[in-house]
Amino acid sequence: MQSVKPVLHTYFRSSCTWRVRIALALKGIEYDQVPVNLIKDGGQQLFSDFSEVNPMQQVPSLQIDGISLSQSLAIIQYLDETRPKPKLLPEDAKKRAYVRMISDLIASGIQPLQNLMVLQKLGEGERLGWAQSCITKGFHALEKILQRTSGLYCVEDEVSMADLCLVPQVYNAVRFKVDLTPFPTIARINQALMELEAFNVSHPSRQPDTPPDLRA
Amino acid sequence: MQSVKPVLHTYFRSSCTWRVRIALALKGIEYDQVPVNLIKDGGQQLFSDFSEVNPMQQVPSLQIDGISLSQSLAIIQYLDETRPKPKLLPEDAKKRAYVRMISDLIASGIQPLQNLMVLQKLGEGERLGWAQSCITKGFHALEKILQRTSGLYCVEDEVSMADLCLVPQVYNAVRFKVDLTPFPTIARINQALMELEAFNVSHPSRQPDTPPDLRA
């Protein structure tokens, strides 16, 4: 089955999908994209054909090796275990735990709280403040943790799954106009990562489904 | 360092902590508990000494082997990699991906949305309905996925990390009075798991910090 190109259901601005696009780029895996516009037509993720692909009605979803996977960290770890070069989780168990801790802090502790579903529930006037407070609270914790674990990147000097979570979350923070001044370690690592090609080609401003006015 | 007993910062009713308590029980790991009451004193997780343990100000946190870990799935996978019996992630990469997908669907896709911080943000009259709708939406997806992956338990016939996420989430669903009738697979697996000792001894009604009126 590995000769069939993987298919990624994607939305240019989805931070969870961006995580997976970085992994695919770092590992040099060719894939086809099927865009799922989360805004248009009342949300194409709610269409019944996509619900068959991912019952959770969220991107990303990756069809690969004859199976259909959703949840970005599950996808990234499957890619890492089946296409191990370059490794996105360190060999050492403690460092791997730090990578997962940082990844989950973002993927469970920050991103879901500033996601579309929660923002739609809140009133128009409350959305920005809520998103800012969730991200700021999470970043205060993340900054402290990264001061202990980081080298060039989130966990020492190798790019890991934690970095794949960090950059899209910083992108969201900027979108929501979060003041990054209190987070020098986060800002430094983000800047170092954005110099890498895989983080650039996968950027929301450079996807096939990026609207023309948002292209870089 | 492995001769020092691990220390779990815990709250009896925290579903994320219950996941870790099940892992510790299944693996027969002895540990000490430090209760952190999320309600009392305005939330003891906000105290500065606990913020040093976990800057995210959430339980669980596990001090083990000379390091301090937070995020339940990172903790469980660290335990599984350093104390592999019984294994909580299958050997096969695709099955492992299913285990992580189901775990993340609950840990990132459901639990954070019905967590304390979001509920406190919503008005008194909106909380129950919101929690119910988040859990119900997630359970519809989970039910479909489990129909494909489950045997006796979430992924075939071995207890895995996915099961450690399922049972506490069903407990939350019951607390929030979610109708489980549309989810026969979830209900069946939950019932099978609750027959296992590790899921019982770790139950919120049987912890050292369980208030007397909530004890089973």
Automatic annotation (TrEMBL), chains A, B:
Pfam families: GST_N_3. Its cofactor is glutathione. Its EC number is 2.5.1.18, 5.2.1.2. Residues 92-212 form the GST C-terminal domain. SUPFAM superfamilies: GST C-terminal domain-like (SSF47616), Thioredoxin-like (SSF52833). The keyword Lyase does not apply. Residues 4-87 form the GST N-terminal domain. It comes from the Eukaryota. Pathway: Amino-acid degradation; L-phenylalanine degradation; acetoacetate and fumarate from L-phenylalanine: step 5/6. One of its GO terms (cellular component) is mitochondrion. One of its GO terms (molecular function) is glutathione transferase activity. PANTHER family: MALEYLACETOACETATE ISOMERASE. Belongs to the GST superfamily. Zeta family. NCBIfam families: maiA. This is Maleylacetoacetate isomerase. It comes from Microcaecilia unicolor.
